[in-house]
Amino acid sequence: MQSKYKIHLLRANLLAAAAALAFWTLGAQPIAILLLWLSVGWLCITALLLDFSHRHSRGLPWQVLPGLLLLGLIASAPEQHDMLIWAWAAIFMLPQARWVLALNAMAALLSGALIAPQLPIPAGGLILLLLGILCLLAVSSARQLVDMNGAIGQRLRLIPKVNLWAGEQLLRDLPREQTRSEREVIYAELFILQVKRRQLWPTAKKLCELTYSFENTYRLNSTTLAALMLSRSPQEATRRRKQLQAALPENVVSHHEPLIDIEPSTLTLEHLCNTPKAQGSS
After folding, report:
1. Where do the TM regions start and end (predicted)?
2. Residue 256 pairs with which residues in a beta bridge?
3. Domains of the chain, first to last
């Protein structure tokens, strides 16, 4: 989880970009106006829903949309929007899937072909060369970040492509999640499950399926699982816990603690695993 995400600053930047694009609609051509307002709407919606939207999504990669909008703006009026060609370097700085990268690369080439006739041959060639170098550097930097994060993450991820982590990762995540929940005004809690040894892995996979993709789950030991759950309010967290308990085996014993009540500096995995089973499901 990206606990250092500066959500308020990012929201302000998105709204500022939306305002700049809205101002740009003055005097633009009809098709360009439509694309600009689509971009403004996307930026505003993203800013308003940013509490959860910046975390990983299982749907269509969002990096596709800005690339298509950028291509559309350049294609609508190449003679007016030629400066937008440099925005491709920023697009390629985003970590993205290989097929999205290939799609954006083709869109960037098409954008260059549309703008090239508007420029003298020497100037156009130089611009495209410099843009190509910038894009390659951006892609290299993004891939290096993805590979580095992936290598670090896989050391503690217990099942490939499943959001289940070793208990040691929980001790690292707790202070960061406390800071983020306070900053973003999100209710966070630690949901602990005690299961039979033979039920551990099936229950772990089920728990990963029932929680959001941005909520980590953890294996604390051979009979204890935990999940860092994020909700908009304590009432919503209670509803979610009841839904989880209804979907899990009846003999699973559960316990929850608000993150604000946990002291990470003195917390150990042994303490979490020794939650009294006499408490039952709560």
Report:
1. 7-25, 31-52, 119-139
2. 191
3. 2-156 (no CATH), 164-277 (3.30.70.270)
State the virtual CA torsion across 174, 180, 183, 187 in degrees, nearest 10.
-70
Model pLDDT for residues 145-165, shown as the tens digit of each residue: 666 555 444 444 566 666 788
SS (H, E, C) 218-239: EEEECCEEEEEEEECCHHHHHH
User: Per the structure block, which two tokens stand in for 146?
Assistant: 């993805």
pLDDT mean by block of 10 residues, the chain; 282 residues: 52 81 79 83 77 44 77 84 84 81 90 85 83 87 66 53 81 87 88 90 88 87 90 91 89 89 83 60 46
CA 13 to chain centre: 17
The tens digit of pLDDT for each residue in 48-99 reads 776 544 344 444 566 678 888 888 888 888 887 788 888 888 888 877 778 8
- Kindly report the backbone phi and psi dihedral angles of residue 160, in degrees, each rounded to the nearest multiple of 5, phi listed first: -55, 135
Residue among 182, 174, 219 at smallest CA distance from 1: 174
Global pTM reads 0.48
First to last CA, the chain: 27
Within 10 Å of residue 134's Cβ, how many Cβ atoms?
A: 16
d(CA 27, CA 61): 32
CA distance 147 to 186: 30
